[in-house]
Amino acid sequence: SSFLIQVVTIFPEYLAPLRQSLLGKAAERGLVDIAVHDLRAWTDDVHRTVDDAPYGGGPGMVMRPEPWARALEEVRPPGTRLVVPTPAGRPFTQAMAAEWAAEPGLVFACGRYEGIDQRVADWAAEAGPVSEVSIGDYVLAGGESAVLVMVEAVTRLLPGVVGNRESVEFDSHADGLLEGPSYTRPASWRGHDVPPVLLSGDHAAIARWRREQSLRRTAARRPDLLLRLPEGALTEAERQL
Ligand code: 6GU
Questions:
Q1: Where is S-adenosyl-L-methionine annotated to bind (predicted)?
Q2: Ligand 1 centroid vs 192 CA: distance in angstroms?
Q3: Model confidence over 117-140: pLDDT tens digits?
Q4: Would the annotation count 180 as a binding residue?
């Protein structure tokens, strides 16, 4: 019944942080089950070779398909989504995290070198959904740190993992906008004051102010997000801001 996360990698130690903190507690409470597998367990030669030179030439090495196929045949339950982290993937988003959190589990295939032979993802798509995803426009040495990012984004959306449901519902990105600024005591600090509306006790005025801050911050930092909001997400007054 718990959400099952499986990771196949040649660096299983890199995934040790999955046992820490929020995720570790969720695992202890049986809300999520995390298994990390060493790809080399499915190699077939004494040197436990996982890579080879690219067809067509070029720099670097490509991960061989056969160890991946044997690993996935053993660890991937039928129909479970296979996630392949790659800088050449579709951008990972909060909406994807929410969709994946509603599924029974996920299998992550971490590539190193110049990636995994493309036929692995093509073949795996015959048995269930496959998502080749990137976590941003920069290049990492391998998919392991991207898996840490995606697993954290997904598991905190699982029922019961985060104590306060509201802190998930009001997250940055949950409504397609960035979250505005937050303040705590003291009301005046080193010449910087908390915006007075937050001390007013007028909850409707506070909600309006927060919405405006969200919109202004999103327009300044992430104008691309405003352009992707669904029709009718902004009132006429908000479109003028
Ligand atoms: Cl998911 N993997 C790698 N290797 N590099 C990345 C990435 C993923 N996302 C951005 N850069």
A1: 111, 135-140
A2: 39
A3: 999 999 999 999 999 999 999 999
A4: no
Q: How confident is the model at residue 167 (pLDDT cuts 50, 70, 90)?
A: low
Q: How far is the CA of 214 from the centre of ligand 1 (A)?
A: 29
- End-to-end CA distance of the chain, in Å? 47
Distance, in Å, from the CA atom of 229 to the CA atom of 234, rounded to the nearest integer, reads 8
Would the CB of 155 count as within 6 Å of ligand 1?
A: no
Structure confidence by residue, pLDDT tens digits, 138-149: 999 999 999 999
Q: Cα(64)–Cα(52) distance, rounded to whole angstroms?
A: 6
**Under 8 Å CB-to-CB from 125, ≥6 apart: which residues?**
none
Residue 111 assigned to a binding site = yes
CA distance 219 to 234: 13
Angle at Cα 231 formed by Cα 230 and Cα 232, nearest 5°? 110
Residue 120: C-alpha distances to residues 116, 124, 230 (Å)? 7, 6, 35
User: Ligand 1 atom closest to Cα of 143?
Assistant: 2
CA angle 114, 72, 33 (to 5 degrees): 105
pTM above 0.90, yes or no: yes
Contact 168, 157 (CB under 8 A): yes
Q: 71: CA distance to ligand 1 center in Å?
A: 22
Q: Please report the beta strands in 175-224, taking only residues with DSSP state E, as ranges in sequence order.
A: 188-189, 192-193
Q: Please indicate whether residue 139, judged by its CB atom, sits closer than 6 Å to ligand 1.
A: yes
Q: What type of residue sits at position 42? A: W
Using alpha carbons, select from 113, 129, 127, 104 the residue that is nearest to residue 32: 104
